[in-house]
Fold this protein.
Amino acid sequence: MVLMLQIKAMVLVELEFQVLFSFPQSSFLKSPLLVTQNPILAVRNPILAVRNPILAVRNPILAVRNPISVVRNPILGGRTLIDTWFRPLLGHQM
């Protein structure tokens, strides 16, 4: 059961990768504000976190929903640890 879920997850990531990169890549690279201001877009596209470190830093929700992006992007993983564990303790003053 677990193996089947992992295979399905890998297939979904591969499909998202194909859809994402079937468009011209320059549109994403030239518009970083487009991805940083759309957290829903980030949650549904884990590949975006890998290719856009700005996106990873500005969207802590992304790491919670996409463990693959945390593993492949250490900036995202570190920032999420701060957001998830320390920010509530400090009263959002970071």
About this structure: The chain is about 80% helix and 0% strand. Residues 1-36 have pLDDT under 50 and may be disordered. Residues 2-20 form the longest helix (19 residues). The radius of gyration is 14 Å.
